[in-house]
Amino acid sequence: MTDPKKILVVGAGFAGAVMARELAEQGFWVDVIESREHIAGNCYDPIDKRYNLRVHHYGPHIFHTNSEAIYSYLSRFTQWLPYQHKVEALVEGVGYVPFPINRMTLNRLYHKKLKNRTDVEAFLDRVKEHHKKPDNARHMAENIYGKELVELFFSRYTKKMWALELEELPCSVFARLAVRYDDQSGYFDDSYQAMPAQGYVTLFERLLDHPQIAVHLSEHFDRAMENDYDHVFNSMAIDEYYQNEFGALAYRSIKYQMKSQSNHKQPVPTVNLTDTQPVTRFTDWSLYPSDQKNTSLTTLVTKEIPCSYTDNNNERYYPVKTVDGEPQRRYKQYENLAKMNKKCTFIGRCGQYRYLDMHQVVANSLRLAHNFIQLK
Ligand code: UDP
To answer: What class is the 1-39+208-247+323-376 domain?
Structure first.
């Protein structure tokens, strides 16, 4: 490479920050623009000094992966606090029960004495449905748990989360959840589960700390900026980039309401509300592992209320894919346009319109960066 190339990265979340780092290390000059006033995207987790609590402003982000490569890559920028995420569901008339459903959940709900995996399997065998070739989230869930448990734990939660019925959603949404026949009460099964020891913001500061990276906060992307760069890696919503040429893509959003609460009690860091009230999750930040010492009896609790992104300042968090394939077809039209756009590569959840977890976003940016570098 003769002249070092100039790259624009749009967005300082995982997709953009990893991309910027990889390219800077290979000699590119990288400008990162971020429309918010902070880096770290939706992982933003500053300390609330009033209570010495680290709070994730966009809901709990628990790092988990099966990839040794991704874990070691990020370990260059952070130490870790091991953390196995635990969730319980608050069921009307019953109280808190482990979620995903396990042996203890069933015993508490049905006053049973299921002793082991064989008992649990036999119980679920009796209640489960037998949908042939399940091709939607309801049929997939009912084939494991039957109608009653699906109604109690998945149907109503999903309706408020997505504003869609379970049967309208693809199996992949339900398949994110572990299925347990024993007492395991962790939310994830991955071999690496941890939180960045000094928080995500510190991890991102280190990722972006490179002499060839310049970060510009509160700066919005404009297509005219492309003229000043050799290439753009863009994590903005792909439909927004193309000014809704084929219509707006569907995204779901969440309003995060944070409140200080005295003498608040919940059994695990995150509680799921599976009834019909609009809140889906309660998170108590004093229960997460942290480098901070919360010495107060007051804690901070975040309530999550899903909503349309247009009701939340155009904050797009979840791409919405449906069984009828409508949003997927619309996205395909944008993707085809993007393939012809040699100046710009779309990255991240909103750019690629995929329900990606953090580790998958990191893996994608690493792969795309390496492909790009090889072509230069
Ligand atoms: N889900 C549910 N009940 C729950 C938790 C999850 O029905 O108590 C369904 C719901 O459709 C949700 C999906 O499972 O969107 C994936 O859950 P996950 O916890 O992975 O969602 P995320 O953390 O990505 O919001």
So the answer is: alpha beta
